[in-house]
Specification:
With 154 residues, the protein is mainly beta. It has two helices and nine strands; from the N terminus they run H-H-E-E-E-E-E-E-E-E-E.
Length: 154
């Protein structure tokens, strides 16, 4: 999702990448290993975002994130119909494109080739990533976005 991954899902307007390109330096062994560790299919375990009071709240949802060996990424998340955000339409988020790891393996950039929300098409969405056991935790690198998506192996 462009959240939940746009990715890898998110809930506020996506920002253009302001950091150096994730491909500007050669991949380190850490980046190669991190990339190998995140490949495959992931089911959403939780989506957290600030509520009206500013406190983090869990949003009920379900979804799938797929990252392939050849650098493609696709995300789909079904949210409550009433939920409105920059990554979804009618309670559904869907996007696909490519991803590139940073040299340190701690972040990636998701380049959106297609999305239900057409304003996302062509954007680069930088994301921080962290693996904890069988969980992949993704957050935005944009300081104005405060969401967190946890994916787990099916």
């Amino acid at each position: 999702m462009a959240m939940a991954l746009a990715l890898v899902s998110g809930v506020t307007a996506p920002a253009q990448a302001t950091e150096p390109s994730a491909t500007s330096a050669p991949a380190s062994q850490a980046a190669v290993q991190a990339r190998q560790n995140i490949l495959g299919a992931w089911q959403i375990a939780s989506l957290e975002q600030p509520g009206p009071d500013g406190q983090m709240q869990t949003t009920p949802c379900c979804g799938l994130l797929t990252l392939t060996e050849d650098g493609h990424m696709a995300v789909q998340v079904m949210l409550p119909e009433s939920m409105i955000n920059a990554y979804s339409h009618g309670g559904y988020e869907a996007s696909y494109g490519t991803f590139k790891m940073s040299p340190d393996g701690k972040s990636m950039v998701f380049h959106v080739d297609g999305a239900l929300v057409r304003d996302l098409v062509g954007r680069d969405l930088p994301r921080a990533i962290r693996l904890e056991g069988n969980r992949l935790i993704i957050t935005s690198t944009n300081p104005a976005e405060h969401w967190r998506v946890v994916w787990q192996r099916p």
